[in-house]
Design goal:
Layout (H helix, E strand, L loop, with lengths): L2 H16 L2 E5 L9 H6 L1 H8 L1 E3 L4 E7 L6 E8 L5 E3 L1 H14 L4 E5 L2 E3 L1
Antiparallel strand pairs: 1-6, 2-5, 3-4, 4-7, 6-7
Helix pairs in contact: 3-4
């Protein structure tokens, strides 16, 4: 391997680590009473959660299910050591995956930001 090959490999590995995603579903706790209802709340939740997050900043919002006694808690945590900007669209898409893919909710880290 030449120096150029090592630099290319390093660039690829760096790009992969920056955009890496890790997802974890909760295996205990209450199951979603109605996934459609929970997803309907995301638009309102992300009105409060989108925007700029300083390094290590966390925001969460709690919404009551219109169908039952269940509460939905949505959280965004910037785990980076620098500020990040979160669009409304990215907020909804990332939190929606936790509802769609996990029966009891879960969390996912994408680009250093945790969505729960």
């Amino acid at each position: 391997f030449s120096t150029m090959h090592y630099l290319k490999l390093l660039a690829v590995l760096t790009a992969l680590s920056i955009s890496s995603t890790s997802a974890t579903c909760f295996n205990s706790g209450v199951s979603w009473d109605n996934k459609y209802s929970a997803k309907d709340e995301l638009n309102t939740a992300c009105n409060a959660l989108d925007g700029t997050y300083d390094a290590l900043e966390v925001y969460s919002v709690c919404h009551n299910s219109p169908d039952s006694q269940q509460k939905y808690v949505f959280e965004v945590n910037n785990q980076n050591r620098h500020a990040v900007s979160l669009s409304h669209t990215a907020c909804v898409a990332n939190l929606k995956r936790q509802i769609d893919n996990c029966d009891r909710g879960g969390y996912e880290v994408f680009g250093g930001t945790r969505f729960k």
